[in-house]
TrEMBL record:
Residues 19-308 form the Xylose isomerase-like TIM barrel domain. It comes from Phyllobacterium brassicacearum. The lineage of its organism: Bacteria, Pseudomonadati, Pseudomonadota, Alphaproteobacteria, Hyphomicrobiales. InterPro entries: IolE/XylAMocC-like, Xyl_isomerase-like_sf, Xyl_isomerase-like_TIM-brl. This is Xylose isomerase-like TIM barrel domain-containing protein. PANTHER family: HYDROXYPYRUVATE ISOMERASE (PTHR12110), XYLOSE ISOMERASE-LIKE TIM BARREL DOMAIN-CONTAINING PROTEIN (PTHR12110:SF21).
Length: 313
């Protein structure tokens, strides 16, 4: 396995300053965002598809520093029923085309989340039993069969056309694909090019065991994020793990995203990466830094030290 970093955390730096920082941090690769929710300016797909000279210059800067592009990322909701969904789908497709043009084989993205019924105008995350109320089975069927399956058949076709081999869908909340089971529901329909970006931090607060999840996923692991979660003692016990407070309200949340090692110790991380490697994944591990309990710099430094000590090489 090789260590990379999601460069969104350095969105305030210029492109070359970001690259220089990555070299100083000791990572081997970079995971950059082509569009979607990210505001990071470093590798926007629309700009680079329109300006081949700029693309060539940026690729030379990356190569000159001995860095590799681990994957292109477009975290987005292409199934949103409003204008955002249209924009996100366009930016996802642009990111896919850009990846194909520069020989990147993996796209890190999200499955999307549609409305629950025709005519609704907001996405609806259905996480209650499908058996009651009576309308729930149809809402579930509509989201998957009428909305998600057609989109992902199209995206799989596009990937084949441009030479992208893998989609790595992050198991994020408020998405149709948020667990191994939901991933396989989509993968079984559209094919093995769709797999998971295994992010253990989300599974932790959902109550799953990411090590068991890795065993269940096996070859469906297409990418891996290094990010930790801490369940906050005394708060989760009272309020449970469904948490709507702002991510910056760290003292009052039931759980927080934290630097690697601040939620689970290094022995846990060693076992996690050992199992991930054992089931067949030997690719990039990208640090995704979203710890608001400490400074960004401290979180990056401690996370990289933890990941370098635990990933299976």
């Amino acid at each position: 396995m090789k260590l990379s970093i999601c460069t969104d955390v350095m969105g305030d730096l210029s492109f070359t300053d970001m690259l220089d920082k990555c070299v100083k941090l000791g990572v081997e690769g970079i995971e950059m965002t082509g569009g979607g929710w990210s505001r990071a300016p470093h590798f926007r797909a629309d700009d680079l598809l329109a300006d081949k000279g700029l693309l060539k210059t940026k690729l030379k800067e990356i190569e000159a520093r001995g860095l590799k592009i681990a994957a292109l990322n477009c975290s987005a909701n292409p199934l949103d029923p409003g204008d955002m969904g249209k924009r996100h789908r366009k930016e996802m497709e642009q990111t896919i085309r850009l990846a194909g043009e520069i020989g990147i084989k993996t796209i890190v993205t999200m499955s999307g989340l549609p409305e629950a019924a025709p005519g609704d105008n907001v996405p609806n995350w259905l996480v209650y039993t499908k058996s009651w109320p009576d309308e729930m089975p149809e809402r579930d069927r509509y989201q998957w069969e009428d909305r998600a399956f057609p989109l992902w058949h199209d995206l799989v076709k596009l990937a084949k056309e441009v030479g992208v081999e893998k989609y790595a869908l992050e198991n994020f909340s408020a998405m149709l694909v948020w667990s191994p089971e939901t991933l396989f529901r989509l993968r079984n329909e559209v094919g093995a090019s769709v797999g998971m970006n295994l992010d253990p931090s989300h599974l932790m607060w959902m109550g799953a065991d990411p090590i068991a999840s890795a065993r269940a996923l096996g070859p469906a692991i297409h990418h891996c994020h290094g990010k930790d979660t801490r369940i906050e003692r005394g708060l989760a016990d009272v309020n449970g793990l469904l948490e709507l407070k702002d991510v910056t309200d760290v003292a009052n949340r039931s759980w927080n995203y934290v630097a690697v090692g601040a939620g689970h110790d290094l022995q846990w991380w060693k076992e996690f990466f050992s199992v991930v490697r054992m089931v067949g994944y030997n690719g990039w591990v990208s640090l995704e830094m979203e710890d608001f309990t400490m400074s960004t710099e401290a979180g990056i430094q401690s996370s990289i030290a933890a990941l370098q000590a635990t990933i299976s090489r």
